[in-house]
Design a protein that fits this description.
Layout (H helix, E strand, L loop, with lengths): L3 H14 L6 H9 L4 H6 L7 H15 L4 H5 L1 E4 L2 E4 L9 H17 L6 E6 L5 H9 L3 E7 L2 H13 L4 E5 L4 H6 L3 E6 L12 H4 L15 H9 L4 E10 L5 H11 L4 E6 L5 E8 L9
Parallel strand pairs: 3-4, 3-6, 4-5, 6-7
Antiparallel strand pairs: 1-2, 7-9, 8-9
Helix pairs in contact: 2-4, 6-7
Bound molecules: glutamine.
The site of glutamine (GLN) has 10 residues, from loops.
Length: about 290
Amino acid sequence: MPTYRQVIRQYENRLAEKDRDSNVPKVLFYHFAHKEPHQLYLMMDEEVDADLLAQFEEAMDLYMQGYPVQYIKGVETFFGRDFVVNDKVLIPRYETEELVENILYHIDDYFDGDQPLDLVDVGTGSGAIAISLEREESRLRVYATDISEEALEVARENAQRLGAEVTFMQGDMLAPLIEKGLKFDIFVSNPPYIPVNQEIEHVVKDNEPHVALFGGQDGLYFYRQIFQSASKVLKDRAILAFEMGYDQREAMEKEVRHYFPEDDFVILKDMNGKDRMLFIYHGMPKIDNHK
Ligand code: GLN
């Protein structure tokens, strides 16, 4: 049997030739051999067990064919927790961790005391946002919706594995919330926001669910859907928090002014300096103490 070093080298070279991410062989061994980087480093001259090698080679083949490494592993880390993922859900993105982080700061800033707060995540996908918030902030009563029953299956599994109490509802955008007459203090969504004709990476376009990616001609279709009927599901004082595309600031500002003429709002940048998050302060003034 070849050693870890030999196997990893061989695949690193093949990936480098094709201009693909040459970290992937190590990442797959961390995962399949259940080793941390410092442990794998100490094992590099050991022989790879035959079963493990077969598993690794099968996974590498999928990766070479353009399948995302997160779907191959079946898990992605988000806000410090491992979430099960498959090709029925969008792979949780780093930028979305920043949305979760900013929502937590907003809760501290805008909602005094310890009364429970009702929060909904519309289009929850893997449940990454809803479940992370439920685990981080004990005041929250968390609801989450998705139009895809297959996505909700993944989200329910994640909630169960991570011990989160989230009420999941199947339905289109706000419909299940309106139907049940629910009203929220905090409304969250990372809707599909890529304009249909925008060029995006093949690994995303060919593998991730389009129902989670594309938001009509200008990418804002689902925001308009939400804005139009938001007042039906909001308490008098509420915060709305959205992820958005890096190039949507101007168009987004126009929509927000149109649908929420009375309300303050802010667009925050992500770590890469790109416009990424929209917060609307409904029925309450914006406080000027966060980034
Ligand atoms: N940020 C994702 C991407 O760039 C898109 C997510 C979304 O549309 N909500 O692939």
